[in-house]
Amino acid sequence: MIDNPVLRIIAKIIIPMILLFALYVQFHGDFGPGGGFQAGVIFAAGFILYGLVFGTESLRSAVPPAVLRLLIAVGLALFAGVGVITMLAGSDYLAYNALSEDPIAGQHLGILVVEFGVGVTVSAVMITIFLAFAGRNDP
Amino acid sequence: MTIAGLYNYWIVILLMMTGFYVVISSGNLVKKIIGLNLFQASVFILYISIGKIANGHVPILQDGVSHYSNPLPHVLILTAIVVGVSTTALGLALVVRIRESYGSVEEEEIHRQDESL
Amino acid sequence: MLIEAVNIVLLALLAATAIAAVRLHDLFAVAMMFGIYSLLAAVMFVLLDALDVAFTEAAVGVGISTVLMLATIGLVGRHELPSTHRSLLPLAVVVATGAALIYGTLDMPFFGDPGAPVHQHVAPYYISQSPHQTGLPNVVTSVLASYRGYDTLGELAVIFTAGVGVLALLGLRRRKRPGKHRTAQ
């Protein structure tokens, strides 16, 4: 695949845009359409495109599998951890109001962190799955 | 609006049934999983159709808009899509392993090998 | 009126794609049909006011799912063997199930009816209270992360488990096991 100049150059132009768009969807999801799930899959789609065009070996050196495996757990732990923090702050599990003096600010912070956790786990799982399938084909 | 009001649901049921037909009639495990995905995507369309309000608006609050479509099905389906692809991947991984140990992904061939043991 | 026309055309295209997927025996073509189907479904979601869902379906259905299917087809072979017993039983089961479901829709509220029971329960509460309780204009995000945070945590745990399952089945590292026979495609 890497021999095809059209694919290679288009992918080089388009992949940064996909990743930037994913970040926009992630952090602007509170106000426009978007959120952790959407951003996670778009982010993963960018990396999968990279893997398809430049080979799984390059993708594996760009995002080492060990890091991905760590990120899968980190995202979920971030989400669950927010719940523990709200409990330590004396409220119910995942009641974001307790995160700040101002309930609205607490909700904002809680939702932002939780969505980030969702995005991390979803994108790491998707890239991991792709690597697991595509790596099977390597000689 | 008597028949037209249900037209959407009927087509979606037709789509669901094509997916279901692939699942039960095809002997190839990969095609079965694709059928399952067709079925799943049709169920998503059914849910989102139920949440639609005529002349409604995307549930992102704005000044001057009072009719919003129901956001609840959107939330359910949003997560269901991502969960769906993860479980599909799990199914496909099983298919790959079946192929590696049986040398085939055809149901009949796998049964035949199991019986000859 | 334009929206109704687009709706009807989209549904017809969805049906055509699904039926083409049933009739094809080349799995590569079937996977491509599934990609087209997902793209049409994403357009359908935009039409039905579900922008967040359309995003996800476009990225997952068209991108990731199809790539995974193609990767699997690359590993297991792309041609489906014609079934030896072509019985009418599956068709009968499908027609009976479809008829039962269509009978069920006769009691359903019409498409787009604002008075349908589903719009009377929690949705108005979310739409009216979300700006005051969470301060977010996107109700989908506030319901997803805040009102139904437990749900989302559970879903994320499912995705986590599925990822771990795929890792357990296929593994991330290539292990060169001696004596392992791998057939060339």
Walk me through the structure.
By secondary structure, chain A is mainly α. Helices cover about 75% and strands about 0% of the residues of chain A. Chain A has five helices and no strands. Chain A is elongated and about 60 Å long. Chain B has about 120 residues and is mainly alpha-helical. In chain B, helix 1 (about 5-25) packs antiparallel against helix 2 (about 30-50) and helix 2 (about 30-50) packs antiparallel against helix 3. The longest helix of chain B has about 30 residues, at about 70-100. The termini of chain B are far apart. Helix content of chain C is about 70%, strand content about 0%. Chain C starts with a helix and ends in a 15-residue tail after the last helix. The interface of A and B includes residues 31 and 40 of A.
Task: Please provide a brief summary of the model.
The complex is a heterotrimer of chains A (139), B (117) and C (185). Chain A is mostly helical and 139 residues long. Chain A is built from five helices and no strands.
Give the SSE map.
The complex is a heterotrimer of chains A (139), B (117) and C (185).
Chain A: H1 5-27, H2 36-54, H3 56-62, H4 65-88, H5 103-135
Chain B: H1 4-25, H2 29-51, H3 71-102, H4 107-115
Helix pairs in contact in B: 1-2, 2-3
Chain C: H1 2-23, H2 27-47, H3 51-76, H4 89-105, H5 123-133, H6 139-147, H7 149-170
Helix pairs in contact in C: 1-2, 2-3, 5-6, 6-7
Which key terms come to mind for this protein?
heterotrimer; B: 117 residues; mainly alpha; Helix Hairpins; 4 helices; 74% helix; elongated; C: 185 residues; 2 domains; 7 helices
Residue share in β-strands of chain A: under 5%
H/E series of chain B: HHHH
**Corresponding CATH architecture of chain B:** Orthogonal Bundle
Tell me the count of domains of chain A.
1
Q: What proportion strand of chain B?
A: under 5%
Q: CATH topology of chain B, which one?
A: Helix Hairpins
Number of strands of chain B: 0
Major beta-sheet overview of chain A: none
Count of β-strands of chain A:
0
Structural class category of chain B: mainly alpha
Give the overall silhouette of chain A: elongated
Number of domains of chain B: 1
Structural class of chain A: mainly alpha
Please identify the oligomeric state: heterotrimer
C-alpha Rg of chain B, in Å? 20 Å
Please tell me the overall pLDDT of chain B.
89
